[in-house]
Design brief:
Layout lengths: L1 H31 L1 H7 L7 H8 L6 E8 L3 E7 L4 E7 L2 H16 L2 H15 L2 H4 L7 E5 L35 E4 L3 H5 L11 E7 L18 H14 L3 E6 L5 H7 L5 E5 L2 E2 L9 E3 L10 E3 H4 L8 E5 L6 E4 L3 E4 H8 L3 E5 L5 H17 L4 H15 L11 E5 L1
Parallel strand pairs: 1-4, 4-5, 6-7, 6-8, 8-12, 12-15
Antiparallel strand pairs: 1-2, 2-3, 9-10, 10-11, 13-14, 15-16
Helix pairs in contact: 1-2, 4-5, 8-12, 12-13
Length: about 400
């Protein structure tokens, strides 16, 4: 019996020692790897009061629209500085079909299907309080969930329209009512980030590989022939407003060079191709010029977590960079999540495959707005989209709606 008591005391001592070592390790991780610590161990969940306090700090009136998608029900929360409204929507077969038809219609330019589904989704996804408000906040942060993560809300229609008689310019887009930004959760949206380090006066780093080599008997991606001219136009806009830029075009636009140079800039632009792997989302990649030293021509999700960025804005000028794996309790895990962890505060990316000319047009319009009003990212994207919509009656939502701003 005495032997058992001694053995128990021995194991208790060892347990206490291991617990102490574990706590010291966590403290060391918190000190040496603060970003990883926040990702892994910081579990404080944002409250409604936290959200309202944050909304009250914005210069313009703003609101937050949050979704929680279950197996059979969709829960919708609309929060302003003064109130919170909640409602529930059944996820019927029609609900699922309307979302699928809407996305298909956007991609295939099926105007009748688009008009019908875009208005149906507006009526069923937006709470009555928001739709019937006499005065609505101009800034709206949307926290989509699961199937809604693929949805560009700007393209929803606030009224029913005559499908063939209404030109695209006259469509009652949700875009006309709100400037929208997005995030994955209220907790991430509220997460405080360390202040950006003071950098040199060079404000924008832009990469464009232009041409892409074939590899492993796979055909090469199509050359982005307009990318050099697009970067030149953006550089001119910045320098006209006394901001400096550095552009890396062609064979030197490698992943190695981006890793080395990107920590020195607050604004980053990648104008390239992305390859979304639906079967294995972790193998989705962003393409670069082939590195002559190690033949690297891509970066994958895991690679982005190893970056150290000081970027207040990262623009992923490539198709479907917002796509990823849907994980229960985490939402979309893709390239954007890796770049957020690496230090990017705001990310502009695409949910759709957008024609090259349309992508170039919107990026130039966005940077033109941004050069005139620095750090107003949500408003700059909103104004750029309005400019695209209003310039021609024949511009479908595919040309602009897929661009989404993720950030604080």
């Amino acid at each position: 019996m005495k032997g058992d008591t001694a053995l128990i005391a021995q194991w208790q001592t060892r347990r206490l020692h291991c617990q102490t070592q574990y706590e010291q390790l966590i403290a060391q991780i918190e000190t040496n790897y603060p970003d990883y610590y926040r990702l892994k161990y910081q579990t404080h969940t944002a409250s409604v009061a936290d959200v309202q306090a944050r909304l009250s700090t914005n210069e313009q009136a703003s609101a937050l629209l949050s979704y929680c998608s279950g197996e059979h029900e969709l829960y919708i929360f609309y929060i302003t500085t003064e109130s919170i409204h909640a409602c529930r929507q059944s996820k019927t077969d029609e609900y699922k079909q309307q979302i699928a038809r809407f996305l298909r219609a956007l991609k295939t330019l099926d105007k009748p299907a688009y008009c019908q589904t875009a208005h149906w989704l507006y009526q069923n996804l937006l709470p009555t309080t928001l739709r019937q408000a006499n005065s609505t906040p101009p800034l709206l942060t949307i926290l989509p969930d699961r199937e809604l993560l693929y949805l560009p809300f700007d393209a929803l229609l606030t009224q029913a329209v005559e499908q063939w008689a209404t030109p695209y310019t006259d469509m009652p887009y949700f875009l006309y009512q709100y400037s929208c930004s997005y995030h994955y959760s209220a907790t991430l949206w509220l997460q405080k980030r360390p202040n950006l380090a003071p950098l040199s006066s060079t404000n924008l780093l832009a990469f464009a590989p232009v041409e892409f080599a074939s590899k492993d008997n796979m055909p090469a991606f199509r050359a982005l022939s307009s990318s050099a001219n697009t970067l030149a136009a953006i550089q001119q806009l910045y320098e006209q407003n006394h901001y400096k830029t550095h552009t890396v075009i062609g064979k030197t636009a490698t992943w190695r060079n981006f890793k080395q140079q990107s920590p020195q800039y607050h604004h980053l632009l990648l104008y390239t191709h992305a390859d979304f792997n639906e079967a294995q989302p972790n193998l989705s990649r962003i393409l670069w010029a082939t590195d002559p030293d190690d033949e690297t021509d891509s970066c994958y999700l895991a690679d982005t977590y190893n970056l150290t960025l000081q970027a207040d804005l990262l623009v992923l000028g490539a198709c479907e960079t917002g796509m990823g794996e849907l994980r229960k309790g985490e939402g979309m895990v893709g390239m954007t999540r890796g770049f957020l962890y690496a230090g990017a505060r705001h990310i502009l990316f695409s949910l759709l495959k957008i024609p090259e000319q349309s992508a170039a047009q919107l990026l130039v319009a966005f940077f033109a707005q941004l050069a005139a009003q620095p750090k107003q990212y949500t408003q700059a994207l909103h104004q750029a989209k309005l400019q695209i919509v209003q310039q021609s009656s024949g511009v479908p939502p595919l040309a602009w709606a897929g661009w989404v701003l993720l950030g604080e």
